[in-house]
Amino acid sequence: MPVTDEKLGRIAGVVLAAGTSSRMGQNKLLLTVGGVSLLRRAVVAACAARLDPILVVLGHQRERSLAELAGLPCTPVLNAEYARGMNSSVRTGISAVPADASAAVVMLVDMPFVSAGMLGELIDRYRATGARLVVSTYGEVPAPPILYRRDLFGELSDSLDGDGCGKRVVKQHRADAVEIRWSASALVDLDSPDDWLESRRTWEVDSLTDASI
Question: Which is deepest, 19, 37, 170, 199, by most CB within 10 Å?
Answer without folding.
Answer: 19
